UniProtKB/TrEMBL annotation:
Domain HTH tetR-type: 6-66
Domain of life: Bacteria
Signal sequence coordinates: none
A GO term, aspect molecular function: DNA binding
Name under which the protein is recorded: Transcriptional regulator, TetR family
Gene3D superfamilies attached to this UniProt entry: Tetracycline Repressor, domain 2
Keyword annotations from UniProtKB, A to Z: DNA-binding
InterPro entries the UniProt entry points to: Homeodomain-like_sf, HTH_TetR
UniProt DNA-binding region: 29-48
Claim: Amino-acid biosynthesis is one of the keywords in the record: no
Amino acid sequence: MPKQIVFTKDDIIEAAFKVFKEEGMAGVSARKIAAKLKCSTAPVYTSFNSIDELKDILLEKSLQLLLKYTEKEYTQDYFLNIGVGMLEFAKEYRFIYRTLFIESNTYQNILEEFTRKNLIQMKKEASLKILEEDLKEILEKLTVYTHGLASFICADMLEDTSQDYFIKALGNIGGDIIGGTALRRGKLQEYLKCHRKREGL
């Protein structure tokens, strides 16, 4: 008699995450997870109280993964890295991005937590210290633009999805947003001085 394979919670979570990545949250079911593991649905139901419990774990896993993307050093600019990371995540995990940010407001708490973590990252950027009271507004403006690009990526409507393009596009709009805010606050020259110093100019 062949030895029975025992699946751990982590095995089930990984299988569920693969389904989530391929089909979005609507596709996550005990049957499809079992198909990934090549087993019955029993391990899924014995490891978790419900599919909803498993879905909550997938959401938290997705948020942590997204944060890793936005914390990578694509450039020397912490603020720019947030946007580039979001687009890279959308490119790699289209269905997950759509579930989190496009299809409904069900996961509003994910966006709120993501925003809170990003504000912490932005405070590390020296050129933004003079605009600390405006950081949330600046982030919201860039987020709107970035989500627009991410939506095009998810719909396969963006021709150039290279990291170089992401950096250029977000760098340009970010400069406009921050520069405009600095000008409105009467701090444009101070901001430009900080920016040049960081760039070694």
